[in-house]
Amino acid sequence: MTNDHSRSGGRHGYALDDALLRALFEHTPDGVLLSRPDGTVLRANSAACRMLGRSEDEIIALGRQGLVLDSPSLRHMLNQRSEEGRTAGELTLVRGDGTTLPVELTSAQFTGGDGSSFTCSIFRDISARRQAAEAIRERDYLLSESQRIAHIGTWDFTLPDGPMEWSDETYRLFGVPPSFVLTHTSFLGLVTPEDRPAMEQWIRACAAGEPAGLLDFHTTLPDGRLRVLQGRGELRLPEGTRPLRMTGTVQDVTEQRQADEAQRREESKRDRLIRAIEQAAEMVVITDRDGTIEYVNPAFEKVTRYTKAEAIGQNPRFLQSGQHDAAFYQTLWETLREGRTWHGRFMNRRKTGEVFTEEATISPVRDQAGQLTGYVAVKRDITRELETEARLAQADRLESIGRLAGGVAHDFNNLLTVILGYTSALLDAGPSEDTRTQLEEIERAGERAAALTRQLLAFGRRQVLARVPTDINSVCVGLQGMLRRLIGEHVQLVVDLAPHPVVVDIDPTQLDQVVINLVLNARDAMPSGGRVAVATAVAFMDPASAAAHADLEPGPHAIVTVSDTGTGMDEATAARVFEPFFTTKETGRGTGLGLATVYGIVKQSGGTIVVYTAPELGSTFKVYLPLSATPHSLPGGHAMADAAVEGGSEAVLVVEDDDPVRHLAAAILSSAGYRVFTAASARDALELLQEAASKVSLVVTDMVMPGLGGLALADVLRQCHPGIQVLLMSGYAHDTTRPHWLADVGARFVAKPLTRASLLRSVRLALDSPPPR
Known about the structure:
disordered N terminus; five-stranded antiparallel beta sheet; single chain; 27 strands; 25 helices; alpha+beta; rod-shaped
């Protein structure tokens, strides 16, 4: 190659003069160096001087090698010189201030007219391009690291079945290497089978430009772990051309979903706990560490009558009743401050002013770091429970006293039977006037003793009752006149009766005694006068109401209420008011058996009695009796009471283990013309009847005897000797759980203590009755 082109038309037919070449050399924006093959620089244009920060003389002095920073890229470029003598590449030049300049270099060799070889090097500043490339590399690195840290990968998909492009993180998320062949089918193979239909539908929705939103799906990594990934995508429309492309992200949300599920479980557990606390029957109170209430449940509102809004922000001391001293609360707080749980009972006051008892457990509450954050109290209103326990304890105490009283009265009745029986016989024998007077005093004393015995038997629920359907209203109406006379003019009597008959199964005579005793007790509580009210009503006792009263069964009940405006009683007195011989009256003004008798009659009749009283506030006695199942079968008179006393000639067997009573009964019957056999036990009686059954018309037997009792003997006689009548005698009803026991054994009954008249009347009625069935 020569430089002839610069002087002649060359191959194109025109010439370049020296001026034009110099202008091109000087004004080109790229740096140009003209040098010899040995590296000597001959010329440098102004752009080269400016870019290198050197004068042309300095560049010439350094030479080409002095300008170029030796580097592997330079050596590589020189080794790659083409056959035409051209080289191209990037290298680094050293500027005058010592800094470097990255350039893109193109050099070519040519031969001058004198045959000399020259090299023309053209270089361009690529600093900006390199900075931009470095920025891109830095951005790509940061993007890749961000995806790795956030577990978010990117993807690009050419629709419908074109190539797919994934970022490095996307490959990692799916657990496949970058060499994995990506297609629509291979991608779906990475999705778990149960999620593939949803993924297909999601891709179609994205491809259609619909708002498909986010999609959670599962993939299984090569190590078997199941991961939850979340996809997001949208359709790209590059100027409306085809093919369509989708781009989006995929993120590993496994930990997030596990945390969400754990949170849901925790929230569900917390919700269940809150619902349980809200529905609990126990009161729950939560306070901060200073004792300020932060939460109360509905049970607290129900028991205390304070609303949640009224309680929150207060200290629990606003419930205090004043019935605990300072030492009580000091002990409580010392226990809690020591980190221990406190158990005990409070006497607190409701919003209504009523004092109630609660059983409480108060525990410190600590956070995860073990720091005290507050206290939680779980409390239960036990007021009614304590009242029931007290009533049951009183009932047990009275039951024990009743058993004792009944046992004493039974033996005492046998003694009274002998005393009154022989006294009556002596009176019938026509004694002198002085002797008659003495015998009559003995008889009156015995009758008073018998009356006391009957009261003891009534209290002990061992009294023989003739329970028949009885209208309480009719009894109260019939007693009004007597009651007004008994209470005197200084006491007002008010009778408020139910508008319909109130019928119960009870002995009418005993019901009279209940009402009279209660009214007289009210009168005695009002020495200066006052008001006593008698009321009747009917109420249905549900299980909860019945459970609040000892021994009361659920169902319809009659209620007899006797209330007064008298002095009332304190709690200790009211607890003993039904005990026999307990009285608050002065000596000689009462035996203390009136209310005890009422208690026994009511209990034996299947009911209960409750007293409500307080000092200076009067007293109210409520008698609960089960309603009769046959309210319209009201009885007429008492045939036994009206029967004539007469004797007979029939054979009577007397069975009694008490010798004096047996001898007295035999003497009375013999004197009335009866043929009398005697036996000291039921077994002796059965042996005697084996031979004399055809002769005996009536067996008179005591109910309580060693071995076989009277009821059992009557039952045997009904089966083995059905033609023989049975008359039972006893000082008390021994089986109050069987109100129809006489009918069960087909027998009649006579109460002890026996008198000549009562025994003869009962024997005659028994003999004249139809044969037992």
